[in-house]
């Protein structure tokens, strides 16, 4: 069993809190309050700006030209495809690009992205991948599960989101990330594996906290 499969099994109750979160379920059933989705889109756009930097750091820490090229491609697709989806959604909700980029990061957005950037900057390539994996993997799983709900992929507001994260193309990216993680974990000492587990666990928890933050439209105290 690869290390990712081991963590998936071990952390299942915590992992499942993402797919079962009311924000995710209501998005899939088309009942999510549009204002909550609007809030999510703005914070997620800010999240992606920092997340993309993890891919740039991945290219720096890569141990082969092939891995370096893949991180460069991920940086490109995040900035120009995923963020383009957010910009298109924002336009539909009447949010200008300026408003999007000048919005303030919520406490959770800031904590989550800074945690990942700290792990990526100060740790090994494996630490960096442990930080970014729950984001990729959980969205892929969510996309696939939501796409099974009748009408979810065709929903006027949320269909595009479901189609993007359940696509084969996105699945290939997530699988690449999983394989890289397993390769990097192979042969590592227990202490290093424990560190990878902690990073993976914490970013899995941060994913749930991000859904909760969006559901409550939680910003800084006044
Ligand atoms: C809070 C939050 N977590 C995960 C993702 C998903 N995501 C972010 S970057 C990336 C890689 C490919 O572009 C993926 C799948 C998100 N958007 N927001």
TrEMBL record:
Q: Which Gene3D superfamilies match?
A: Heme oxygenase-like (1.20.910.10)
InterPro entries to which the protein is assigned, alphabetical = Haem_Oase-like_multi-hlx, TenA_E, Thiaminase-2/PQQC, Thiaminase_II, Thiamine_Salvage_TenA
**Key words, A-Z:** Hydrolase, Thiamine biosynthesis
- Start and end residues of each Thiaminase-2/PQQC domain: 9-216
The protein's superkingdom reads Bacteria
EC number assigned by the record: 3.5.99.2
Q: In which pathway does it act?
A: Cofactor biosynthesis; thiamine diphosphate biosynthesis
- The answer to whether UniProt assigns keyword Hydrolase to this entry is yes
Which leading EC class covers this enzyme?
Answer: hydrolase
Keyword Hydrolase found: yes
Swiss-Prot/TrEMBL catalytic activity: thiamine + H2O = 5-(2-hydroxyethyl)-4-methylthiazole + 4-amino-5-hydroxymethyl-2-methylpyrimidine + H(+); 4-amino-5-aminomethyl-2-methylpyrimidine + H2O = 4-amino-5-hydroxymethyl-2-methylpyrimidine + NH4(+)
Q: Which family does it belong to?
A: Belongs to the TenA family.
Family matches, as PANTHER family: BIFUNCTIONAL TH2 PROTEIN (PTHR43198), SI:CH1073-67J19.1-RELATED (PTHR43198:SF2)
This molecule's function is given as: Catalyzes an amino-pyrimidine hydrolysis reaction at the C5' of the pyrimidine moiety of thiamine compounds, a reaction that is part of a thiamine salvage pathway. Thus, catalyzes the conversion of 4-amino-5-aminomethyl-2-methylpyrimidine to 4-amino-5-hydroxymethyl-2-methylpyrimidine (HMP).
Per UniProt, subunit arrangement is: Homotetramer.
The name under which this protein is listed is Aminopyrimidine aminohydrolase
Protein species of origin:
Paenibacillus agricola
What lineage does UniProt assign to this protein's organism? Bacteria, Bacillati, Bacillota, Bacilli, Bacillales
